[in-house]
């Protein structure tokens, strides 16, 4: 049972594509977390990925890294993010997916983290510096708290590995679209469609594309061969610029109607 | 934290890296497994170590230092006499040869003091590999001479302004570069740290220090030493020195961490002393961090010890009590440095000076016919500006 997976499947069943924006908690101050989450869910996003800042974010590109530095400078910690989310958890209607490096979870205490995160509305977890092989350190506690541990599949994953990752992934499969770190990009490799088909062939868990997706065209293009997208750096930039129109446009591109009338 | 399958030293180590790196680590693991027992590879490595690096390095009886300290006999393992001035070349050359075997044409590396950067730049010039080195902007300033040397050797040096702008941030950038250029690039990690198989590869390429020392001391003294002392940054010169002696329970192993401005000031790099464990740069290890799990900046006068973690094998040796880890402040290291200059005419690297100072105290607790070996990991030419500044001179 995964609330996260169900939420995605109910979106795709209607013909729309899943749209998961990534936000950096505490960028601009933690008091912004609530209004941003409430407004995003009003726009009709499927779930929200809540980034936790870390001192050494090796999987992140400059945009998210800088957002993380701003969040750290404003005193954001994993504990404070969970407290803040908990304070308005009853108003949260979409599943939250926390993205945090492993060390803050270890410092928090794995069991305590899982229990508190669940109360805060966190239904999924992405740990970018923890491959499947190392996941036993958190997995039992997450299962007990009904938090789905999402695996990333990269372009470099061998077929054998891809199969293992896909089968282990909970909630959805985070298919990384480029070799590299997070950040906006203009072009993607041509073979992506085949890559996504291959991943989906192993599982009925929805496959979502992430890393580098930054335009409505990207959203539609990826939507044509997978279950949806995760948009990070572009959302982070738009939130800093308070450009909600840009965000709305991206969300709209994931809807069936947009694709039918070709907006 | 004993759950991961690969590359554990007790509860430490592992492969805590983004998925994109996992295939590369597996390839590296397999490639290394092949060359480890490949005679042709080992012969080629040995050829370069002998004729290019200048091995074996002397194990030198420091008679005047011994007299001055008053205690056990002190020997110096002269890694400072290696080509490029430190032990780092042992590993850089080994990994560069390994990269060639893997068909990789490009190399990325991080560097703190610049010694690993220079060693890697050197190996790349020798073997015709393209090389890019990430270095914290702070260290670029502290080690200007080494930056210049790397550039002369044809390497591109990129200053990292992020975070604390020191070694840990250089590792972050080197990892990012590697993830992005995984197809044609090998990452030559400079210490016995990072994700498996790096701690093992680096240790194996550095164990030549301990292997030689063992043969040399048996030859001159007809017995093993009573104690060995080495400084700890990421832990490569020390693990290379310790490893061949781990089974010899009568040989006391002492690692020396940097206490910076003093442990009590919080401005230090003594990760094992801190007692805190965590995950950074692919490994579970002792790690300087705050209560929220954020990694803390390390502080040391020596750029090469300025790292908040320590290689997983050392963490394990500490846990099982096989090695002892002490620490030495900036000020004490400078004293050790002056002591060695004055008594032996050897200017050690600031990193190695930590080991010298620690040993100068340790020998006093030992008998006069006991034997202590210091791993003199590098020479101090690179540090003259820092030393001058610290001693109130105006060279800097
Ligand atoms: C001369 C010297 N000694 C020691 C070190 C510390 O590294 P490690 O602990 O890996 O030997 C360095 C690192 O740059 C160095 O240059």
UniProtKB/TrEMBL annotation, chain A:
One of its GO terms (cellular component) is cytosol. This is Tryptophan synthase alpha chain. GO terms for molecular function: tryptophan synthase activity. Tetramer of two alpha and two beta chains. Its EC number is 4.2.1.20. Belongs to the TrpA family. Gene3D superfamilies: Aldolase class I. It is an enzyme of class 4 (lyase). The active site is at residues 49, 60. It catalyses: (1S,2R)-1-C-(indol-3-yl)glycerol 3-phosphate + L-serine = D-glyceraldehyde 3-phosphate + L-tryptophan + H2O. Signal peptide: none annotated. InterPro entries: Aldolase_TIM, RibuloseP-bd_barrel, Trp_synthase_alpha_AS, Trp_synthase_suA. The alpha subunit is responsible for the aldol cleavage of indoleglycerol phosphate to indole and glyceraldehyde 3-phosphate. PROSITE patterns: TRP_SYNTHASE_ALPHA. Keywords: Amino-acid biosynthesis, Aromatic amino acid biosynthesis, Lyase, Tryptophan biosynthesis. Pathway: Amino-acid biosynthesis; L-tryptophan biosynthesis; L-tryptophan from chorismate: step 5/5.
TrEMBL record, chain B:
Pathway: Amino-acid biosynthesis; L-tryptophan biosynthesis; L-tryptophan from chorismate: step 5/5. Its EC number is 4.2.1.20. Its cofactor is pyridoxal 5'-phosphate. GO terms for molecular function: tryptophan synthase activity. InterPro entries: Trp_synth_b_CS (IPR006653), Trp_synth_beta (IPR006654), Trp_synth_beta/beta-like (IPR023026), TrpB-like_PALP (IPR001926), TrpB-like_PALP_sf (IPR036052). Keywords: Amino-acid biosynthesis, Aromatic amino acid biosynthesis, Lyase, Pyridoxal phosphate, Tryptophan biosynthesis. It comes from the Bacteria. The keyword Amino-acid biosynthesis applies. It catalyses: (1S,2R)-1-C-(indol-3-yl)glycerol 3-phosphate + L-serine = D-glyceraldehyde 3-phosphate + L-tryptophan + H2O. One of its GO terms (cellular component) is cytoplasm. The keyword Amino-acid biosynthesis applies. Residues 54-376 form the Tryptophan synthase beta chain-like PALP domain. The modification N6-(pyridoxal phosphate)lysine is found at residue 88. The beta subunit is responsible for the synthesis of L-tryptophan from indole and L-serine. Belongs to the TrpB family. Tetramer of two alpha and two beta chains. This is Tryptophan synthase beta chain. It comes from Ureibacillus chungkukjangi. The gene is trpB.
């Amino acid at each position: 049972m995964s609330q996260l997976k169900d939420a995605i499947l109910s979106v795709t069943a209607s013909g729309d594509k899943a749209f998961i924006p990534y936000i950096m908690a505490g960028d601009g101050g933690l008091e912004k977390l609530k209004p941003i989450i409430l407004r995003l869910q009003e726009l009709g996003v499927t779930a929200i990925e809540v980034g936790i800042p870390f001192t050494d974010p090796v999987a992140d590109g400059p945009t998210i890294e800088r957002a993380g530095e701003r969040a750290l400078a404003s005193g954001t910690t994993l504990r404070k993010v969970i407290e803040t989310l908990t304070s308005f958890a009853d108003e949260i209607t979409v599943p939250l997916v926390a993205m945090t490096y492993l060390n803050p979870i270890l410092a928090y205490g794995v069991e305590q983290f899982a229990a508190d995160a669940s109360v805060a509305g966190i239904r999924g977890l992405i740990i970018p510096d923890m491959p499947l092989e190392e996941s036993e350190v958190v997995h039992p506690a997450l299962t007990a708290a009904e938090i789905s541990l999402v695996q990333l599949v990269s372009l470099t994953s061998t077929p054998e590995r891809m199969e293992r990752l896909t089968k282990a992934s909970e909630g959805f499969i985070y298919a990384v679209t480029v070799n590299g770190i997070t950040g906006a990009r203009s072009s993607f490799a041509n073979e992506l469609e085949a890559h996504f088909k291959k991943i989906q062939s192993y599982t009925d868990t929805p496959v979502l594309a992430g890393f580098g997706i930054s335009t409505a065209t990207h959203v539609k293009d990826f939507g044509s061969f997978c279950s949806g997208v995760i948009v990070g750096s572009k959302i982070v930039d738009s939130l800093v610029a308070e450009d909600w129109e840009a965000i709305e446009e991206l969300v709209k591109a994931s809807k069936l109607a947009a694709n039918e009338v070709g907006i | 934290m004993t759950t991961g399958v690969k590359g554990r030293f007790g509860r430490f180590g592992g492969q805590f890296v983004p998925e994109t790196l996992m295939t590369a680590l597996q390839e590296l693991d397999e490639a290394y497994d092949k060359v480890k027992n490949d005679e042709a590879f080992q012969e080629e490595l040995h050829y370069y170590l002998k004729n290019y690096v200048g091995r074996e390095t002397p194990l030198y009886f420091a008679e005047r230092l011994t007299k001055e300290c008053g205690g056990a006999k002190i020997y110096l393992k002269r890694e400072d006499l290696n080509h490029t001035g430190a032990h780092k070349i042992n590993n850089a050359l080994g990994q560069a040869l390994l990269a060639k075997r893997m068909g990789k044409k490009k190399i990325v590396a991080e560097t703190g003091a610049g010694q690993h950067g220079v060693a890697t730049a050197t190996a790349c010039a020798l073997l015709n590999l393209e090389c890019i080195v990430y270095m914290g902007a702070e260290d670029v300033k502290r080690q200007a001479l080494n930056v210049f040397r790397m550039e002369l050797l044809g390497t591109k040096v990129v200053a990292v302004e992020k975070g604390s702008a020191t070694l840990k941030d250089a590792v972050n950038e080197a990892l990012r570069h590697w993830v992005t250029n995984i197809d044609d690039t090998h990452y030559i990690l400079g210490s016995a740290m990072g994700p498996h198989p790096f701690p093992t590869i680096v240790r194996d390429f550095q164990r030549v220090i301990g292997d030689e020392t063992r043969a040399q001391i048996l030859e001159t003294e007809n017995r093993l030493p009573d104690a060995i002392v080495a400084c700890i940054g990421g832990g490569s010169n020390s693990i290379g020195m310790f490893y061949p002696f781990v089974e010899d329970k009568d040989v006391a192993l002492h690692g020396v961490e940097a206490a910076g401005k003093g442990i009590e000031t919080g401005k230090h790099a003594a990760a094992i002393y801190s007692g805190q464990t965590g995950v950074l740069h692919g490994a579970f290890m002792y790690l300087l961090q705050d209560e929220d799990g954020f990694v803390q900046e390390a502080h040391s006068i020596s750029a090469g010890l300025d790292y908040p973690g320590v290689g997983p094998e050392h963490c394990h040796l500490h846990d099982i009590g096989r090695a002892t880890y002490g620490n030495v402040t900036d000020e004490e290291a400078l004293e050790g440095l002056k002591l060695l200059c004055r008594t032996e005419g050897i200017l050690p690297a600031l990193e190695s000076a930590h080991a010298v100072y620690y040993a100068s105290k340790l020998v006093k607790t030992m008998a006069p016919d006991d034997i202590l070996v210091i791993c003199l990991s590098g020479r101090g030419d690179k540090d003259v500006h820092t030393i001058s500044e610290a001693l109130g001179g105006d060279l800097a």
